[in-house]
Specification:
CATH class: Alpha Beta
Number of helices: 6
Number of strands: 16
Order of helices and strands: EEEHEHHEEEEEEEEHEHEHEE
CATH topology: Metallo-beta-lactamase, Chain A
Amino acid sequence: MQITVLTENTTAHSHLFSEHGLSLYIETENHRILFDTGQSDAFYKNAVKLGIDLTKVDILIISHGHYDHGGGLKRFLETNSKAEIYLSPHAFENHYSKNGYIGLDRTLSGNERFTCVSAPLHIDNLTLFPASLLPAPFDVDHSSLTLDSNIPDNFDHEQYLLIKENNRKILISGCSHKGILNIAHFFNPDVLIGGFHFMKINIDEKGLQRLTESAKALLSYNCTYYTCHCTGQAQFEVLKEIMNDKLNYISTGDSFTA
């Protein structure tokens, strides 16, 4: 399985666009998958520069209903006319941060190409799993993210992609809003790719303790992690000191075999 980062917050490639967001292009034995579209058309521009033909994508997955993961959805619809598009039935609900609306473009809601995932959905060796069914033995950090009327977001609009290939389990998450520890504990994958949503943890005594405990918990699983986007650069460095080669950072333009 080959994974290419079409857009992420950072890049070491000056000819590629980076932005606060995430988009991954995944080639498996049976499918060409786009996982999220970032916040703009940068994913498309980078795909062109990298020689990736997005018209051949047969599955698009929107991990959750935030603009930095589904903001390029309109551009994808204009580019690709055949892919099945999977998202949560809650994806177009109102989502806010303290800075205002951070949801998807409501004018796209109800497109006939959308399939809403409210129960585990199996497609060949792929499984889409809705966050509403994810047990949460570990705390979930709402990080001032809300629904209407300042109701804390329950993140039921999030979903995860599990790929089983060559006797291995590869789990892909967008921002892991339901808690990276809950996700790792439930799926127990061989490889976990996605943001950890630690970027708002302060690098102070309390924050360092939380990051250290999280790193040790993640190390308790026989798993290799590729993180990005909402983990936070300073937070990643703290985790890396503890997790060493079990943790890697991926940025725009990176391509790797999982």
